[in-house]
Amino acid sequence: MSEDPTPVSDSPFRSEPSARDEAPQFVLPLVVRIEKAEPPARTDALETAARAVLTILADERSAGAGEWAGAMRDWQDARIRKVVRRARGAEWRRAEALPGITVTGKSAEVRVFPPVPLDGWPKDLARLQVSGTDLDDPEPPVDADPAAPVLWLNPDLGMSAGKAMAQAGHAAQLAWWELSDEERAAWRDAGFPLAARTADPARWSELTGAGLPLVRDAGFTEIAPGSCTVVADHPALRREPHGPGRAAATRSE
């Protein structure tokens, strides 16, 4: 497992109240570039946000004595909050000037930043809007590759693109936590391939009961507390010892 394995009973992704609720709370900022003339496709934005989260988790600056390691530890010692804001033009250029990582998809650009205190956002990020991240897919997304990781979204929930991006990021992180070091390295070296798709309503119950990482929302925004939002279906987690009872869950903002 990872260098800092956390038992499921004491995971920061569990949903029941814990000492982590009393710890100082941090948030992982993500900024999506949305230009008026060329907004990204919704599905690509979700997938790019998920890869951005994985990229900062895997970055050497986030581990050991890295420059972001302390912030990453503080963030993961509390609730695993993520907030997606939008930017364009000069706003995007100012965001790019701050320490972080920009991940590019087919049409989407998402920049992820080291965690910050809930009330300590950098000025150039704090001024960005959370609302207005409603995006569409010009064409229906193709079927997901069954051999690649898939983030399955709850078909019964309506979420803005920004909310869904944060949820996809949570699901990708849950999968990352459940993988061995070797499995993480293989995923990273392949460029974090993944797909984000809305599950078939008839299959959603099966997915939530399959023992796969499952995101439960805290209900701070848009949807009811405890709602199951995304299942992370990574091929490496479909076999033992990752069976029923090992699913991780988190509440997100």
From TrEMBL:
Family: Belongs to the PTH2 family.
Protein's name according to its UniProt entry: peptidyl-tRNA hydrolase
Lineage: Bacteria, Bacillati, Actinomycetota, Actinomycetes, Kitasatosporales
Pfam families recorded: PTH2
Region annotation (Disordered) ranges: 1-21
Record-linked PANTHER family: PEPTIDYL-TRNA HYDROLASE 2, PEPTIDYL-TRNA HYDROLASE 2, MITOCHONDRIAL
Superkingdom classification of source: Bacteria
GO-annotated molecular function: peptidyl-tRNA hydrolase activity
SUPFAM superfamilies: Peptidyl-tRNA hydrolase II
Enzymatic class: hydrolase
Reaction catalysis annotation: an N-acyl-L-alpha-aminoacyl-tRNA + H2O = an N-acyl-L-amino acid + a tRNA + H(+)
Keywords per UniProt: Hydrolase
Extent of the signal sequence: none
Enzyme Commission number(s): 3.1.1.29
